[in-house]
Amino acid sequence: MMTPDKGFLSRSHVVRATIPKRQYRPNEVCSMEQLRSRAMTFSSILFEGSNDSRNGETPEAPAFFGDLNLDQLIDAVTADWKDYELLAFYYTPLNNLDAIEYRQQVMRDLEDKCLMQAVRTFSGQMRAMRDRLDHAKKRDSKQATERWFLDAVEIYCEAVERLSLDVCLLNAKSRGMRAFREYLMEYVASVSFRDLLTEATKLKSDLSAIRYCLRIKDGGVTVRHYDGASDYSADVEETFEKFRSGTVRDYSIKPRNRTGMNHIQAQVLDRVYIQA
Fold it and tell me: Quick one: how far is CA 264 from the chain centroid?
């Protein structure tokens, strides 16, 4: 049986927001005018009703799971996704035919390879976002923490926009996926999301524009404002370029992939922050 990517079932919910008054192309797929007229409210990809997703949720495995070894099966399926708290979804039975049909329709849509790939891509980006947030919590430097958080926001915005586009271009047939598609388009067009994306983009651009100079001498490091000094690395490469003959060995050292900063880098960052 086809099952959706587990990250897609995360309890994390995109905030609801109203659609701003904007102009869109008349032939745009899933036009915003249609969304405004419908004003659909999306609750869950697994439950159609707004109160169904939490009411009656079963936190513990039913007694018969052990008899059928279903507990082992579900533990194996969710082993790599513990942060998403998925077990209760598998423990909770559906008690009416309409709820079962709603979920089966979604599963049939997910048999489309393009749609499934879009969901898997989104899930991977959400895991990357969570990874950045985890790194942010582990940083001692306030500036480093905020930079990791900005990375998480950037990944989030890109993931939501991409999923909205991918889902909109595909022919979803289920009630759940169509409601989700319309909800995504509402959210991506909302003032709150556009403001978040604009602010994150501007912050990253501002950070990329920061220039500073380091003077390293006698075991000390001095941080000072960038004063338009020449890039001496480019000058050195140009000077020695004439000695290059044929294929030469690459003696450059590849830095180790580190996610944190050592004490020297942290102090340099603090001083750049003070001078900025």
Answer: 31
C-alpha atoms less than 13 angstroms from C-alpha of 189 in its C-beta half-sphere:
20
Given the structure tokens 């930079």, which residue do they identify? 147
**What does the alpha-carbon distance between residue 51 and residue 56 come to, in Å, rounded to a whole number?**
10
Give me the residue spans of the domains in the chain. 6-57+92-208, 212-244+259-275
Kindly state the average pLDDT of the residues 131-138. 89
Looking at residue 175, its pLDDT comes to 92
Closest to 160 in 3D by CA, of 195, 187, 133? 187
Contact 146, 200 (CB under 8 A): no
Query: pTM value?
Result: 0.71
Which of 255, 259, 258 lies closest to 136 in space, CA to CA? 259
Query: What is the separation, in whole angstroms, between the first and last Cα of the chain?
Result: 56
Burial tier of 163 (Cβ tally within 10 Å: 0-12, 13-18, 19+): buried
**By the 8 A CB rule, do 48 and 11 touch?**
no
Question: Residue 92 contacts by C-beta under 8 Å, 6 or more apart in sequence?
Answer: 56, 57, 58
Q: Which residue has the higher pLDDT, 193 or 245?
A: 193
Residue with tokens 């089966």: 104
Measured CA to CA, the distance from residue 163 to residue 19 in angstroms comes to 18
Chain segment 246-259, per-residue pLDDT in tens = 666 777 777 666 66
Alpha carbon distances (Å) from 65 to 7, 46, 71, 78, 103: 23, 21, 5, 15, 21
pLDDT, one tens digit per residue, over 43-54 is: 788 888 765 555
Alpha helices in the chain (DSSP H): 32-38, 64-67, 70-77, 87-91, 97-109, 113-138, 142-169, 175-189, 191-208, 232-240, 263-275
By the 10 Å C-beta count (0-12 exposed, 13-18 middle, 19+ buried), 116 is classed as middle
Instruction: Determine the 3-state secondary structure of 75 from DSSP.
Output: helix
